[in-house]
Amino acid sequence: MKIPSPGESITEVEIASWLVEDGDYVERDQAIAEIDSDKATLELPAEESGTITLKAQEGDTIQVGAVVCIIDTSAKAPANSTKKEAKAAAPETPKKEEATPSTPAKSEVASPSIDVKASPVAKEIITQNALNAGKISGSGANGRITKSDVLQFMSGGITTSAAGGWGGTRETRREKMSMLRRKVAERLVGVKNDTAMLTTFNEVDMKPVMDLRAQYKDKFRETHDVNLGFMSFFTKAVTEALNIVPAVNAHIDGKEMVFHDYADIGIAVSSPKGLMVPVLRNAEQMSLAEIEAEIKRLAIKARDGKIALEDMEGGTFTITNGGVFGSMLSTPIINPPQSAILGMHNIVERPVAVNGKVEIRPVMFVALSYDHRIIDGKESVTFLKNVKEMLENPVKMVFGGKSAEEVLLGL
Fold it and tell me: CA–CA separation, 171 vs 252, rounded Å?
């Protein structure tokens, strides 16, 4: 088998992990490896059924078209079960042991590994929580550590390894950066060096959108079989604002500016492989329900590692939501070759002036990073102001950024 081309301009890939072992019998179209390109992680399916001989190691960089493995198609499938099935069944054995409650036999095995003076119960607690017994002061006879000593030690704010705390060692570890991560790093540095990036900020009173969601979210889910989130409102507001300020939806190509008569919106989503930016094609034509359904579909594909290159190619504008991680304010980096990116943040109740009175409102700070070579300050501020106004008066999204009264009066 040779490495197939994952997409245009990709000349090499990296073996992220083998999903089979040397000598295994594989079925046709069975996923045998995960390969990293500089754009995405993809599964490599077997072209034929047979016994596989691996010709590359995990972490190796392989040229597109080079041989990565050999499949002996004359080999017969095992009579009983394939090694793959055996491997799938293997985890069941330890599960049975884990399912059984702790017994005295377990503590007897674990206790001798702790070479300190401690009661059997104290030793069991120390082992289960991976505590450093040397740091626990014993109050028993001859400094013997008791159960109460261990519990007091744990209640003193000491986190344990079992709870995800520090291990108390001076060890370090190295992990090789994936090809995708290396490419992302290269592109981000390139953006900082090759663009005149600037960021403008504004704040949005989210009460109108939140009230609308609270009123219709149940009916929306029943009607469209998808939840009503904030991202659809922001995407719709962005597409309308891009129509008003087309320069934000354009990009530079050599000595020319390329304008788009459509809005392909990239939505940054977190995945096990890092940040992915799948694209909503012609988002300007979508309803809120269609936006939510497409975001859900792409986010699931990214989470499951099944996102395809064509799902992430292109894009004229990007939205990233740091608020889901608690970010209050940030300056997002442009996703090249685009010229702008909108950063959403967390919603915090803040005192604001409303009609001359101070009220507590749910407020979100928003940030627009843009390439000043193609987008002027007036355009960037106008764009962000329109996004703010449409979110604070959602009816404007229906009428291209105008209020119902303005449409009625022909303004």
Answer: 47
Phi, psi values for residue 248, rounded to 5°: -70, -20
Reported pTM: 0.68
Question: Crossing angle, helix 377-392 and helix 207-224, to 10 degrees?
Answer: 70
Which segment, 28-37, 143-152, 154-163, 271-280, is predicted with the most confidence on average? Answer: 28-37
Q: Which domains does the chain have, with CATH numbers?
A: 12-94 (2.40.50.100), 101-163 (4.10.320.10), 179-409 (3.30.559.10)
Residue 395's Cβ-count burial label (10 Å; 0-12, 13-18, 19+) is: middle
Q: 380 and 339 in contact (C-beta within 8 Å)? A: no
Q: Are 320 and 330 in contact (CB under 8 A)?
A: no
> pLDDT, tens digit, for every residue of 148-206?
788 878 776 555 555 556 666 778 888 878 777 787 788 888 888 889 999 999 999 99
Active-site annotation, residues: 372, 376
Q: How far apart are CA 269 and CA 375, in angstroms?
A: 26
Residues 132, 149: Cα–Cα separation, whole Å: 13
